[in-house]
Amino acid sequence: MWNQTTSTVEITVELPANTRGRDVRVTVDDGALTVWTSWHGVVEGLSGALARRVKADETAWSVASDALEIVLAKDADRDGDPWGCVFADARLGCAKSPREVLKDMVFADEPFDSADDFSLESRALLGEMRQRHAALVRGALVDPGDDLDFKLGLALNANARFA
Q: 31-70 b/e with 16+ CB inside 10 Å = b?
C-alpha cells in the first residue's frame, strides 16, 4: 500500500510476524529503490527504478508492528507533481487512477497556517473566493460584468450536457 503528500511518498508493506529490523535492508538512490530481506534476498516487487526522482539522503525506513514503512522524499526541485505510480514500470497494483491520486492530494496531512493568522486583506480575499466558489457550485454566474468570472462560466458551461 502507498500514499503520498506533496513532499513524500509513503509505502507500507506487511511483513511476517516477528520480523526484526536486521532482517530487512532498504537502499535508495535518486532514482531507484531496493528492498532486501534475510529470507528472500532482493524483493523484486519492491525493488526497481522509481517513477520519479527522490532525495535519497532524506529517505527513511523502519520496521515496526510487523510492517515495513518507507518514506521517500520527493525531489520537488525537479518534479513536484503527484505520482501515479511508485515504480517506472507501472507494476500491477502499483498504479493509481487519477481519482486516487486526487484523493491522496486532498487528504494529504499538510501543515497550513490558520485563517485567523491571515492579514485582514487575505481574509477578505478568502471570503470572496469562498462566495464565488459557492456561486459556481450552485451554477450561478457570479458577475457577468467581471471578465474572469464570465470566462470561467463559459468554460464550465462548455462542459455541460443538455438534454
A: eebebebeeeeeeeebebebbbbbbbeebebebeeeebeb
Whole-angstrom distance, CA of residue 47 vs CA of residue 131: 48
Report all structural domains of the chain as residue ranges with CATH numbers, in order of start.
Answer: 2-106 (2.60.40.790), 115-158 (no CATH)
Give the Cα separation of 46 and 55 in Å (integer): 18
Amino acid at 124: A
Cell of 98: 487519477
User: Which is it for strands 48-49 and 60-64: parallel, antiparallel or unpaired?
Assistant: unpaired
User: What residue type is assigned to position 24 of the chain?
Assistant: V
pLDDT in tens, 3-16: 888 888 899 999 98
3-state SS assignment for residue 84: coil
All cell numbers assigned to 72: 521517500
| Runs of H (alpha helix) within the chain | 98-106, 120-138, 147-158
Name the pTM for this structure.
Answer: 0.61
Encoded amino acid at 51, one letter:
A
**Spatial separation of the C-alpha atoms in residues 125 and 21, rounded to whole Å:** 51
